[in-house]
Each structure stands twice: as structure tokens, then as C-alpha cells.
């Protein structure tokens, strides 16, 4: 069996053969009349067409039968069989085809559409042209590849051979388009904010650091567009949204990736309660549009979106699932013992809120299968959120959890600049005590707040997790076409 290098060298010889005949193996353009999917959709019309048409695609298989060569074209929209017959293309052209064409090449074929005896739609070639010569042979059985990381590393082959993968990323695009359309219709303005920031704020996470040479300035890749979007509310834009790439220098697991997509939107004169209603309507709209019903299947569970979403208190989840009878007053020592009972690892010097959060993610959140709004978070968790009216110890906020996935986080925006400064200073104390994921003190943002931020409700939706939900995909790297991977050694 020939090695990959030997096969590649054979194809390089064919490139030379093409050029020796003054044939460009990589022409600048090819005139194509229709996609293969359109040919299949309008087959009856094309079968009676007298004028030849030109189609193109990648050769996925070749079957020679004497003076006939059948080959399969795939242009990314559909597959179509093609036939090169000596009587139609000529003896020399057929022999040339056998000499230089390999599986994996891109070809343009001019001819007419007909049905074979087995009713297979086929283009009968009158002529053909090399559109791009492939130098590496396609793998025979990519479907059977078991090494997941290799699929991610060469995603172009993964999607080429797996229609399910292609369908997943087409659906991702449609979901993003639908999100935009829904917000546009609701009167939101799509905007863009900096990805390079002097301070990475808007969330508690470790940022990636870089350096801008011209200004000799250290900058950070954004972890959230939140603070900039709220400054746009201050600047006279009452309803804004951004679909943004965000970056967090954190571990990679089934639901976390260092580069991810967020949708964040902010509305002046709104609050967490009104945004919660908006989010529920949005999700019901998406489910109806993409599932043609009111349910989704995820991980073997049937998720029902028809009824009102459940609403539960954060601390009540600990009573029910972690068996902490008095979570409001439990001391840190007992909380650490509870974490140990559930096998929850704790970082050194973890604060009370951090321990709660880790228990919640390990023990409570996975139990929330049906759409559930979690409310009544301790205010200390969310330094950018307003306190609940009448409950100053709680944040006026919610998360939407579905199938154990946190997909939405939202709250009424804190617009008191003096309280915001105090919250930032409290975060600074936590950082000095050893907590790495805190909000930095942002003087420029506080200055903007002092010009007046109207009451507002803000929402963040994890787009990758949303796509996971709609495609019944358990790993976030399956919905990111080019996930971050360790380089091959």
C-alpha cells in the first residue's frame, strides 16, 4: 500500500501533466449555472432542457466501466452523479480523465441531465474541466474515525464526510440569524464594541493579555462587551445588542471554551423582570421555528417549552438538592464539609459565595432539566447588578437553565455610580485575598455612570450552549467549527 507521501507525489506529477498541456489546475474562476441542490429540486425542468448546463463539485467517488466513467460530485449543497461516456466526451478526453482525475478533485462538468435505468439523476458530460486539483487523497472511512480530537483538528474533513456535522453548523447560522431578526424586530440596534480593552470587565474571569506595539500598551481580549454596551445607553441609544466573540482564559470542558460567542442586549427603562418575560418569548419562538413544535430532545430528555417556565430561588435549590436546610445562615466550615460530601473540589481560601457556586454547579444545576429561571442570587455574586427592591442582600437577577446548561444570565443594571465604586472595591479586596476571578475597578466606566445611566435590564445568552441545546450536542467543541486544540507534538 502506497504511503501518503507517495500518493501526494503521484498527484504532483498529474499537476505537471496538466501544466504541460497549458491547462491551469487551479483556474481563477469557473462559471457554474446551478447548485446541485437546485438541480435535484427542479429535476423535471432540467430533464427536458436542451441547452447544456455547467455544474461543479468535488469528486467523491469514481467507478470506471469500460468506456463509461461514473463519478459523484458534491458541491456542499447536494451530491449528483455524473457520467463521462466515450461517445459524448471523445476517446481522448475520456483517457485524459482517467489519467489526471482523482477522488477529491474539484471538477466542472458541462452536459445535460437525465435519469439512469435505476432512476438516478445524472449529468451526462459533454466536456469537463479541472477546477482545483487535490494533492492529498481523501480518507476512505472518515465516518469511522474514533479519535475525536482528530475530527476537530481537521474539521474540513469532518464536515465533508458527515452530513450531521454540516447540518449542525447550518443550523447554528440559522439560529444566529433568527436571534438578530428577533432583536431587530423588537427595536434593538446592533452595535460593535472593542475586543481589545484596557481593562477586561463585565464578568469575573481571567482574561487573555496582549500588547499593542504602536501605543506601547498592554491590552486584554474582552471577556464581555457589557460595560461598553451600557455606555451606549448613556450615549443615547436606548436598545442595543451585540453578537460578540469573547475570550476567557479558563479551563476547557464540555460547556466551556476559551473563545466563545455571546449575545448581549440592553434596554433602557427595563429591568430583570421584564427581560425575563422577553427571554421566555424569545426561546419559545426559537423552539417553534426550529423544532416545528414546542419540545426539544437533549441527552435523552424531552424538554418542553409550551408551559410557563419554572421559577425557583437560588437558595431553595440547595435545600432541595444539596440538603442544606438553612443556606442563608450556614457557616463556611459546614459548607466546606457539604462540598466534601459531594466531591466538590475547592480552591485554597475559597470564599463562602465561591463554595456555594461550586456546589450549585456540581449538585443543583444538573437537576434542572426543564426550562427554569433561577432568581434571588446573593448580591455579592453580581457586582454589576441592582439589588432587589425590599431585599437589599439579593440581586435583581436571573439565570435560565435548561437541561443542566446555564444559557442565559441577566439582571437589572446597577446605575448608582457610588454603589458601583463600592462594589468594585469589594471585588478588589477579594482579589487581594487570593480570588483570581473578580471584577477590576474601572474608573472610566464609573465616570460614564456619573453622567447618568437610565434604569435598564441587560441579558447575556451563551450562543454556543444555545446551539448545543438545539442540536442535542453534549460537548461545546462540537458546535465550534475550529475549537482551540493543543498543537501536535
Write down the CATH topology of the largest domain.
BirA Bifunctional Protein, domain 2
Rounded to an integer in angstroms, the radius of gyration calculated over CA atoms is: 29 Å
Overall geometry: elongated
Measured as a percent range, the helix fraction is 25-40%
CATH superfamily of the largest domain: Bira Bifunctional Protein, Domain 2
Oligomer state of the chains in this structure: single chain
- Give the biggest beta sheet: 9 strands, mixed
Structural class: alpha+beta
End-to-end separation:
26 Å
Low-confidence stretches: none
Write the CATH architecture name of the largest domain.
2-Layer Sandwich
Describe, in plain words, how this protein is organized in 3D.
By secondary structure, the chain is α+β, with helices and mostly antiparallel strands. It has two domains: 4-138, OB fold (Dihydrolipoamide Acetyltransferase, E2P); 156-309 and 370-479, BirA Bifunctional Protein, domain 2. 35% of the residues lie in helices and 26% in strands.
Amino acid at each position: 500500500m502506497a504511503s501518503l507521501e507517495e500518493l501526494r507525489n503521484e498527484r504532483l506529477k498529474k499537476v505537471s501533466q496538466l501544466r504541460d498541456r497549458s491547462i491551469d489546475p487551479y483556474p481563477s474562476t469557473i462559471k457554474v449555472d446551478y447548485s446541485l441542490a437546485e438541480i435535484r429540486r427542479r429535476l423535471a425542468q432540467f430533464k427536458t432542457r436542451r441547452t447544456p448546463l455547467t455544474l461543479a463539485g468535488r469528486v467523491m467517488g469514481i467507478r470506471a466501466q469500460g468506456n463509461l466513467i461514473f463519478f459523484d460530485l458534491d458541491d456542499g449543497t447536494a451530491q449528483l452523479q455524473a457520467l463521462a461516456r466515450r461517445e459524448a466526451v471523445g476517446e481522448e478526453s475520456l483517457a485524459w480523465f482517467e489519467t489526471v482525475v482523482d477522488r477529491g478533485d474539484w471538477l466542472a462538468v458541462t452536459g445535460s441531465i437525465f435519469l439512469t435505468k435505476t432512476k438516478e439523476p445524472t449529468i451526462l458530460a459533454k466536456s469537463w474541466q479541472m477546477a482545483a486539483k487535490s494533492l492529498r487523497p481523501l480518507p476512505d472511512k472518515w465516518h469511522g474515525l474514533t479519535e475525536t480530537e482528530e475530527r476537530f483538528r481537521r474539521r474540513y474533513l469532518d464536515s465533508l464526510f458527515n452530513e450531521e456535522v454540516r447540518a449542525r453548523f447550518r443550523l447554528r447560522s440559522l439560529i444566529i440569524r433568527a436571534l438578530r431578526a428577533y432583536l431587530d424586530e423588537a427595536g434593538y440596534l446592533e452595535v460593535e464594541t472593542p475586543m481589545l480593552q484596557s481593562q477586561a470587565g463585565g464578568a469575573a474571569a481571567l482574561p487573555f493579555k496582549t500588547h499593542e506595539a504602536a501605543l506601547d500598551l498592554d491590552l486584554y481580549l474582552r471577556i464581555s462587551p457589557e460595560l461598553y454596551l451600557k455606555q451606549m445607553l448613556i450615549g443615547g441609544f436606548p436598545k442595543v445588542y451585540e453578537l460578540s466573540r469573547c475570550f476567557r482564559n479558563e479551563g476547557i470542558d464540555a460547556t466551556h471554551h476559551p473563545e466563545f460567542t455571546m449575545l448581549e442586549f440592553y434596554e433602557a427603562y427595563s429591568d430583570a423582570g421584564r427581560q425575563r418575560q422577553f427571554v421566555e418569548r424569545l426561546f419559545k419562538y426559537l423552539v417553534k421555528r426550529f423544532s416545528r413544535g414546542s419540545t426539544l430532545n437533549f441527552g435523552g430528555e424531552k424538554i418542553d417549552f409550551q408551559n410557563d417556565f419554572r421559577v425557583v430561588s437560588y437558595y431553595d435549590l440547595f435545600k432541595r438538592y444539596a440538603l442544606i436546610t438553612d443556606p442563608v445562615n450556614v457557616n463556611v466550615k459546614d459548607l466546606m464539609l457539604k462540598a466534601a460530601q459531594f466531591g466538590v473540589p475547592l480552591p485554597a481560601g475559597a470564599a463562602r459565595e465561591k463554595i456555594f457556586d461550586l456546589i450549585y454547579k456540581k449538585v443543583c444545576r444538573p437537576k434542572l432539566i426543564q426550562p427554569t429561571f433561577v432568581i434571588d442570587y446573593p448580591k455579592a455574586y453580581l457586582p454589576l447588578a441592582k439589588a432587589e427592591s425590599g431585599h437589599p442582600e439579593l440581586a435583581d437577577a436571573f439565570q435560565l437553565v435548561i437541561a443542566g446548561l446555564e444559557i442565559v444570565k441577566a439582571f437589572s443594571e446597577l446605575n448608582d455610580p457610588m454603589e458601583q465604586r463600592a462594589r468594585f472595591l469589594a471585588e478588589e479586596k477579594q482579589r487581594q485575598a487570593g480570588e483570581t476571578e473578580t471584577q477590576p475597578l474601572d474608573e472610566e466606566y464609573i465616570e460614564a455612570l456619573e453622567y447618568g445611566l437610565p434604569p435598564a435590564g441587560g441579558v447575556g445568552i451563551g450562543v454556543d450552549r444555545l446551539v448545543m441545546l438545539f442540536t442535542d450536542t453534549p460537548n461545546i467543541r462540537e458546535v465550534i467549527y475550529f475549537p482551540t486544540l493543543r498543537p501536535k507534538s
